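Shipment paperwork, digital attachment
Item: protein structure file
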Amino acid sequence: MAKWLQSGRRRDICALLYDEGPLRGQSLKTRLEDHYDARIDSQSFYAGLESLAEKGFVERTTDGIHDAYVLTDAGERRVRDHFEWMRERIE
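Attachment content:
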């Protein structure tokens, strides 16, 4: 498994972007906080996004004055691969 998927938060960010992307950073953070039912430290959250972008799994674009994020093709492949791995374990 690629190291970027070892972080549950990064997996969840990618899953949200796969389902709903592109999303502004704050919208993505809010959706994740709603899912976890807990506040996420902004610095930690954006560091995770930056790491995903540096590795080529997420692309940062500009939406007006805000940054928006979308999965790259490589990111989409990794989400699908992880989903298949999970599906095989559950069945």
